[in-house]
User: Which sequence fits this backbone?
């Protein structure tokens, strides 16, 4: 009898062991098998959440087929303590093993929300809040607003929660240091006072990623370091024979080029006009320098230049002074700096607006006068249309 019972017990044990081994094998296969997601999703690991909470959330989101298997696989890999807070993108078909790798990566591998503060020339800024569509990389506009306007509720909710928001500051080419500092002072997500204006021209226009609460002065230091590097590289690769005494004069010329044209293909031609004028001892006679002499770079003029301002004897008025003004008149971008130090090889010494957003260039005064006459006609026609 006992032998019979023992035999039955042994058979049951064998069956149990086989079943357990089969279950383990199945669980292992399920852990690495293609997951159920048909489309990529964003998944947030909440701050302080434990493995059970995360596995249940993943299962409810349809990212994994079994919370229990996910927990067992995580424990088996001894990675339960490696879960990290953040927003993560989980691609379609990700296995549980791949999901585990994603949520323990330690860095929210994909930006879900971006808040980009774009500086304006009035010394203010515009916030652009966007959300990334999972699986596509496409950014969808959620809200665009200025702080003097009503701040959208969605922005308040995101900035008041643990949602992963990446902050950026976008500095366009051609702003003055005053305009940049004033704009940064409007950005509520930055902190700290700016004790003094940075040197004109020495802030590199670009888009900078910052943390919420970042110090304004530290951001300005980053901009200055970037501009110094750009300027040094361009100076080292400059063409021979430029009428520029040093790197400071190169920056001044680049700032004038930046303010004279926003058309990329024209920068080299505009640079050639000013280089040719300097080589021939001609005055630069460029309106942006006159405007800087009036405003000192603080805001925009907002009207036409007066005859008295064209005659004003100040160190920026290139209708009166010879050569370059005393300082840069804006913060030029890389392209303008490179154009100043590698201008096109032309005989142009004049240019004027052509009505298309670009300029008409000329080698002689007669050609220039014809171009000016055409521009006056366009101005007159536009004045009539606007009435």
Assistant:
């Amino acid at each position: 009898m006992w032998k019979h019972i023992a035999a039955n017990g042994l058979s049951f044990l064998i069956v149990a062991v086989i079943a357990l081994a089969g279950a383990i094998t199945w669980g292992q296969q399920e852990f690495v098998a293609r997951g159920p997601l048909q489309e990529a999703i964003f998944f947030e690991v909440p701050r302080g959440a434990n493995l059970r909470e995360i596995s249940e959330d993943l299962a409810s989101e349809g990212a994994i087929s079994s919370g229990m298997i996910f927990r067992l696989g995580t424990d088996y890999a001894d990675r339960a303590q490696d879960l990290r807070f953040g927003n993560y993108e989980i691609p379609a078909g990700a296995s549980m093993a791949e999901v585990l790798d994603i949520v323990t990566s330690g860095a929210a591998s994909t930006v879900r929300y971006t808040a980009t503060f774009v500086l304006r020339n009035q010394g203010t800024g515009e916030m652009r809040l966007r959300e990334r569509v999972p699986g596509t990389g496409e950014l969808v506009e959620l809200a665009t607003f200025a702080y003097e306007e009503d701040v959208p509720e969605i922005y308040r909710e995101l900035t008041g929660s643990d949602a992963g928001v990446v902050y950026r500051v976008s500095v366009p080419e051609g702003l003055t240091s005053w305009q940049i500092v004033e704009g940064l002072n409007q950005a509520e997500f930055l902190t700290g006072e700016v004790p003094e204006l940075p040197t004109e021209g020495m802030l590199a226009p670009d888009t900078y990623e910052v943390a919420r609460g970042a110090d304004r002065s530290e951001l300005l230091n980053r901009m200055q370091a970037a501009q110094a590097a750009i300027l040094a590289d361009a100076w080292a690769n400059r063409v021979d024979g430029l009428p520029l005494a040093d790197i400071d004069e190169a920056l001044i010329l680049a700032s004038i080029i930046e303010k004279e044209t926003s058309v990329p293909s024209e920068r080299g031609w505009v640079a050639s006009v000013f280089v040719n004028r300097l080589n021939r001892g001609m005055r630069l006679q460029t309106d942006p320098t006159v405007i800087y002499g009036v405003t000192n770079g603080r805001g925009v003029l907002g009207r036409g230049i007066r005859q008295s301002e064209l005659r004003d004897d100040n160190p920026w008025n290139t209708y009166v002074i010879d050569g370059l003004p005393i300082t840069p008149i804006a913060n030029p971008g890389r392209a303008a700096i490179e154009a100043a130090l590698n201008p096109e090889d032309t005989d142009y010494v004049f240019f004027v607006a052509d009505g298309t957003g670009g300029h008409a260039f000329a080698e002689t005064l007669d050609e220039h006068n014809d171009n000016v006459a055409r521009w006056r006609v366009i101005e007159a026609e536009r004045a009539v249309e606007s009435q």
Observations:
- The first helix runs from residue 2 to 32.
- The CA atoms of residues 291 and 301 lie 7 Å apart.
- DSSP finds 13 helices and nine strands in the chain.
